[in-house]
Amino acid sequence: MTNPQDELAPDSREATAPSARRSGVWRKWTGALTGQFWVVWGATLTNQLGSMVIPYLSYYLTQDHDVSLTAVGVVLATSGFGGVISQLCGGLLVDRIGYRATMTLGMSGTGIFLFLLGAVDQVALIAVFAFLVGLAAEMHRPASASMIAAHYAPADRPRAFGLLYWAVNLGYAISMVFGGSLVRHGFTLLFWVNSAACVLAGLLVWFLGKPTASPKRPVASDTRSGSYLDVARDRLMLAYLGSWFAYGIVFCQCLSTLPLAMKTDGIAPSTFGYVMATNAVVIILVQPVASPLLSRLDHSHVLIAGILVLGLGYGATAFVSTPVGYAATVAVWTLGEVAVSSVNQAVIASLAPPPLRGRYFGLYGMTWSTAALTAPLMGTWLLQWRATGLWAVCVLLCLGAAAGQWLLIPKVRARSATIRLSEAAG
Question: Domains of the chain, with CATH numbers?
Answer without folding.
Answer: 38-154+178-208 (1.20.1250.20), 228-419 (1.20.1250.20)
